[in-house]
Amino acid sequence: MPKTTPLLETHKKLGGKIVEFAGFLMPLQYSGVMDEHRAVRTSVGLFDVSHMGQVLFSGPRALSAARRMVTNNVLALADGGVLYSPICYPDGGIVDDCLVYRLGSERALFVVNASNIDKDFAWLAGETGDRCRVENRSDEYALLALQGPRAVEVFAAVAEGGDVRAMPSFTFLDLKVGAIAVTASRTGYTGEDGFEIACAPTDAPALWERLMTAGAKHGIKPAGLGARDTLRLEARLPLYGNDIDKTTTPLEAGLGWTVKLKDEDFIGKAALVKQKQEGLRRKLVCLEARSRGIARHGHTLHLAPPAGQPLGPALGTVTSGTTSPTLGSAIALGYVPSEHAAPGTRLCADVRGKPVELEIVKGPFYKRPEPKA
After folding, report:
1. What is the per-residue pLDDT across 222-261, written as a single tens digit (0 to 9) for each?
2. Is the N or C terminus of the chain more exposed, i.e. has fewer CB atoms within 10 Å?
């Protein structure tokens, strides 16, 4: 039986198309993926991401225990700081990617992907042992994502108890929206500025309404899973189960900036040190279509053959692909051998027996404009 978020009835009233995703009933779209995508890129959109999971580490050794579980350096965070990091197996494969919040000197909160909640909790608790207390707190949180260039204006209009305009990226504050207690981080999964705002599940419908009302003059749109996927792909943000999984490492996926090999020990460090020393055999690359067609997850990748010649052996596989609403062309991510991963390399995807021409480009496909002085 699929789980639901506290906002299911809200989505139905708004005409959301409800689908099952990661074991939850979630809105795929409302006014349409393209419309919602453009609203987030040009103004502001609101997402229900309450399906995400939360795992709390607490106790005197909580931060050092959290550091051991991720590739990034939790110990470098100040109170109120957030970081993005993979969680790895001993062989360097990825258990999941997550955000870690430093709640204090003895508490850290992991926000993990919905499809991995049970697996992640079992892994984190099992590998942490008696170092600290590990609790699955997923049922205690609802989570809304307010994203887009007008997100700060919208949130500032309703948030009390702190200056959200002055919040640096990857920090959080405990605030109030009316009588609703929230924890808001300046993070997101769209490539735009914005906030991910946690509250008690019973407060989620009222918080949604307050944000939608505050955003009305900015043209705010409710946005679903479809737009979330096109937005994150344009920004080259990996999706667990597609672009990263237990068979891929952070180094192969272009997440080397999250892997602090010179810092404290962590699970998977030895394997990643070895992989870096020996050199990467494959890399995740950005691809833009140069002919009609859309390369999607699972399509094989081949070197572009001479005109009139058939495709040669498969080099790799497409992990994500879609039509980019911002670029107006098809884009994709995929793994190829490192010797064929340079920008400008021409490839073909086998799309149901039809070759679709692709070119490797330097990512991301979209980067938000720098704010005007």
Report:
1. 999 999 999 999 999 999 999 999 999 999 999 999 999 9
2. C
- Give the orientation angle of helix 117-128 with respect to helix 62-69, to 10 degrees: 120
Spatial contact of 27 and 225, defined as CB atoms under 8 Å apart = yes
Q: In angstroms, rounded to a whole number, what is the distance separating the alpha carbons of residues 302 and 194?
A: 38
- Among residues 320, 319, 312, the alpha carbon closest in space to that of 347 is found at 312
Determine which helix (DSSP H) or strand (DSSP E) holds 35, and give its type and residue range: helix 33-42
* Distance in angstroms (rounded) separating the CA atoms of residues 109 and 138: 11
Give the whole-angstrom CA distance, residue 123 versus residue 119.
Answer: 6
The string over 313-347, giving b where at least 16 C-beta atoms fall within 10 Å of a residue's C-beta and e elsewhere, is: eebbbbbbbbebbbeeebbbbbbbeeebbeeebeb
Please say whether the structural domain 281-361 has been given the CATH code 2.60.40.200: no
**Per-residue model confidence (pLDDT) at position 173:** 98
What count of Cα atoms within 13 Å lies in the side-chain half-sphere of residue 229? 24
Nearest CA among 176, 182, 181 for reference residue 161: 176
What pLDDT score does 371 carry? 63
- Residue 280's φ and ψ, nearest 5 degrees, are -75, 135
pLDDT score at 370: 74
Task: Tell me the CATH architecture of domain 3-47+141-234.
Answer: 2-Layer Sandwich (3.30)
Place of tokens 């008690």: 200
Helix axes 33-42, 225-234, angle to 10 degrees: 50
Tell me the pTM: 0.96
Give dist(CA 53, CA 165) in Å, integer: 27
As a CATH number, domain 53-136 is 3.30.70.1400
pLDDT for res 185: 98
pLDDT at 373: 43
Name residues of the chain where pLDDT drops below 50: 373
Strand bridging mode 53-58 / 24-29: unpaired
